[in-house]
Amino acid sequence: MKSTKQNIAIISVILVLLVILFLFIILISSGNLNIITGKTIYDYDHSWTKAVCNETHCQDYEFFCDGDRLVRQIPITGAVIKMPEDWIDPRNETDIGRICE
Predict the structure, then answer these.
(1) Is 60 helix (H, G, I), strand (E, B) or coil?
(2) Model-wide pTM > 0.85
């Protein structure tokens, strides 16, 4: 009886390890994981910065684009300002909404 439980435990551990190995191989083969750092690699062909504003504050972001597709956006640390109460964004609606083109 003890031998059967041990066999089931060993088989279970082997299956879990195989699943982990399979998932790891998929991540590596997709090209989106740096196996040394463990960080995701983002594919983009251009990046740029833009202020994203609401009624009271503007925050600068760096946008990473692949053609017209947004890949990633990162807020730039410390690049936020408080706007005056009567402030109106001088950009037109097209420029405000533009991210990747």
Answers:
(1) strand
(2) no
